[in-house]
Amino acid sequence: MDSFKREFKRYKQRQPPPDLSEVIDFTQPEAVPFKKWNGVFYGIHGHPGFVFIVNPFNPGAQWQWVEKCIKDYPCQPNICNLDAHVDRTGTDTIWNQSMSDESSCLEKSLLYKLRWVTLGYHYDWDSKTYSKTRHTEFPPDLGKLIEFIATALQFPRLTAISLILSALKPEAAIINYYHLDSTLSGHTDHSELDLTAPLFSLSFGQSAIFLLGGKTREQAPLAMYLRSGDIMIMAVNSRLAYHAVPRILAPPKHASEAALPACLLRGEVDTKGDCIEK
Q1: Residue numbers belonging to the annotated binding site for Fe cation
Q2: I want to staple 221 with a disulfide (CB 3.0 to 4.6 A). Which of 49, 82, 213, 260 is the partner?
Q3: Per the database record, which ranges form the Alpha-ketoglutarate-dependent dioxygenase AlkB-like domain (predicted)?
Q4: Which amino acids are annotated as binding site, given as ranges?
């Protein structure tokens, strides 16, 4: 068994639950091996090109993006895993169909069965490739958010990344939907047409364990907490690093199963203002 898979299985196991004492927590600045660059930007020694941003969203702003992910982005012409099983040519959306019968079981709803949505250049899960002919408009709002983050990262300590980010134009995205028992196996993202373009990852919802490895599966990965609102960028040497999500963390036992992170509670939101702290 290679080093990456060994760590993946370690954090995935249910009984007994894994020891999380070695998981990197970016909310604890005194911890190692990461270094703080500016504000809430972090990097990890030995992983050049990897940037971690602790939730920069203003209060209430995350909710807007969660709504887009479950109400707007699963709509046509975007592609999702349900296309092979249901007719989506009508005006009714996955969200509306799932909410139309309040007495129905959530586990039987389309929303519960939603696993992924592709945006812009659509990933082909069968051939594991992107095609220039399989393309729809990339959501302008999401594109502007990514461009804003890229602009914020362009400061001297990140010169190598800044040169790449300065010409960044978001063109493709995959939205993954996780349940508490979901995992994402170790892999590299090598199907994109331009492998010099950085990967951006935005997370909303329950916390998770994220594994960041190296260019081979023989390199043991580092485990870190990934919380709602956190952003990761994988560029330069980290662009083709192995990574995975072995575990979604359940809410505390004293909370209800539907408990949301505090940062996801619906609050007063200035829809005309900025959603990210400057």
Answers
A1: 187, 189, 243
A2: 213
A3: 50-253
A4: 187, 189, 243
